[in-house]
Amino acid sequence: MTSTSPHTNSVAPQRFPVVIVGAGPAGLTIGNILRAASVDCLVLETETRQFIEQRPRAGVIEEWAVRGLERRGLADTLLARAQRHTECEFRFAGERYRFAYTELTGQHHWIYPQQLLVTDLVREYADVRGGAIRFGVQDVELHDLDTDHPSVSYTCPETGRREVVHCDFVAGCDGARGVTRAAVSDGRAHISRSDYGIGWLALLAEAPPSSDCVLFGMHPNGFAGHMPRSAEVTRYYLECPPGDDPETWSHDRVWTELQQRLGANGAPPLNEGRLIEKRVLDMHNYVVEPMVFGRLFLAGDAAHLTAPIAAKGMNLALHDAFLLGDAIVAYLTKGDGTGLDGYSVACLGRVWDYQEFSHWLSEVYHGASSGDPYRAGTTLARLRRLFGSPTAAMAFAEQYLGTNADY
């Protein structure tokens, strides 16, 4: 919600140069960048610290993003604990096709679940760098964003009182349903959306990974994915109708479909185990343009969503955070507004690049199960070209890894 003045029953206002709404990867990375430069900021989060540190989310981080975190002193635990992946495997038409992308590019992926990264970032921000953060806040409102004196108000969970924070900038990092996205829903933003018309049943299984790499299964029954998470837990995906009820997917039904869709000649059966998470994700993308509205700067899912088809969401959030954090520091410490002026354009170039790759990859994943013989045929043609043409393989590897980024 946006209004022109804070609630009148508030206590004496506070002041921070920057207020960050949302304690996800984007918000916490921005906060850490600011604190490293001795810029004061306040992070507001509606959930508890325990909740954000345990909420399961994506786990694929591209090498450029890890190097960006490392240069900012934010990757020590990640580099010590994350899995390093150099290959993936496609399974279709009953066969297995290994794709060694590190051999082609010299780069790799890191597998590190988002909740672990959030845990690292919030510890560094709050416990090491002394950053101010308020958990469990309620009724966050934004005020006077189109002026030089914006503010943010919220209800304190301990006292029930309204608090007002004056600032120079607001970083909106609270996702698609957050207050910062709602603040630009008055027609000022142009929102582009694409709905794939499919769902993915997202699963976590208490089962050791059945392969040392990510598996993609293209099958007439639907797409299936296998993503190692730890020595004991594996993430799986099953294509399903959008809005499907996860409770209709019994233990036996899930494993029967996974075994069938990921089965291939010479491949051992999957390791089965107890399902500890089942939820249906409707596959869709959106982009908000521009990403700046007065003194409000959107980042991460508040500005764009890329379906997990291409595992790009957390990487885009970090890309935004690096650009915005550095730009705010430059402005507040040197008076250099170049980064802030170019923030939206710089972010959206990569956003649209990843959106296009997600769209292309969706056809590869879902063409075989579309029920359309033409789409199924073109899907097989793309896959054959991927494994028959070094040029096609290199182009795919570069997009899959996001190799044209350097932060």
TrEMBL record:
In this chain the FAD-binding domain maps to 16-357
Which terms are listed as keywords in the entry? FAD, Flavoprotein
Pfam families in the record: FAD_binding_3 (PF01494)
Q: Which InterPro entries match?
A: FAD-bd (IPR002938), FAD/NAD-bd_sf (IPR036188), RIFMO-like (IPR050641)
Q: Which SUPFAM superfamilies match?
A: FAD-linked reductases, C-terminal domain (SSF54373), FAD/NAD(P)-binding domain (SSF51905)
Gene3D superfamilies membership: D-Amino Acid Oxidase, subunit A, domain 2, FAD/NAD(P)-binding domain
Q: Which NCBIfam families match?
A: PRK08243.1
- PANTHER family to which the protein is assigned, alphabetical: P-HYDROXYBENZOATE HYDROXYLASE, TRK SYSTEM POTASSIUM UPTAKE PROTEIN
Q: What's the name of the protein?
A: 4-hydroxybenzoate 3-monooxygenase
What organism does the UniProt record list as the source?
Streptomyces shaanxiensis
